[in-house]
Amino acid sequence: MDLHLSGRVAVVTGASRGIGLAVTRALAEEGARVVAGARTLTPDLRALVAASGGAVRALSVDLSTQEAADRLVGEAVSAFGGVDVLVNNVGGVRPRMGGFLSITDEQWTWGLDVNLLVAVRATRAALPHLKAGSNIVNVSTVMSFLADPDVYDYTAGKAALSNFSKALSKEVGPKGVRVNTVSPGPVETELWTREDGIAPTVVRAVGVDQEAFLKEMASRMVTGRFTKAEEVADVVLFLASDRAANVHGSDFSIDGGMITTM
Ligand code: NAP
């Protein structure tokens, strides 16, 4: 299926690794022009830029300020003449294993900022450039509707992101701008395995074996495995394409059947 993304201009946040990198790569493979933002320009992202012949540009930005979001979107406008697709992919989770009373305002603020306000800022920067036929895809999580006391600030931030996404779709839909959300279940990325990631944090707190923990987590999926970042990217690209021209204000789960309700 031709997604008609060739020549379209996309801005992807959190593009240095994991899902954001997979989305950036998939967009480039479809012939889109991409401005990719993250704090770190990883070797993988640099390699993608180098191989793209100018179609992918990467910017080192900490999207915890409006100025950085404006700069990221501004790069797309000045280099490629506008923005057709915004993929709000930045997010972060730090398991808080000490219970609700152990969580400080600072920790709440971090979780709400990275999971909600980063997307709000990028949307604020991009919206004036989004013409009829353009769209926004927000990367949320199934945890936005599966509340979990080990990740209070993550689930609250993502629930707010999904709610924001729906509300925005009502405002901008009549102007021809679509807004949708992708909600993955566990995805095979470093978010799970790096030193301050989910698995090592839980392993340290409850003293289980990391391999056993990840195996148990995989068994929660009906398919018996984590989703791959590339599989999430495929859903994001479909929503970003005009093949999904009347898909609007929707939330698509990709979770290997982890959610057992209809
Ligand atoms: P990841 O590997 O931790 O990647 C997160 C990305 O966000 C990185 O590129 C990171 O780059 C960037 N980032 C974080 N803070 C930033 C900031 N202040 N400014 C700019 N960039 C920032 O995570 P992932 O697993 O790919 O997850 C991507 C999205 O999917 C997140 O929203 C996550 O919540 C969601 N999700 C993931 C899973 C999963 O199981 N992996 C499941 C459901 C939903 P730098 O650190 O270089 O800035």
TrEMBL record:
InterPro entries: NAD(P)-bd_dom_sf, SDR, SDR_fam. GO terms for molecular function: oxidoreductase activity. CDD domains: SDR_c (cd05233). Keywords: Oxidoreductase. Belongs to the short-chain dehydrogenases/reductases (SDR) family. This is SDR family oxidoreductase. It comes from Saccharothrix syringae (Nocardiopsis syringae).
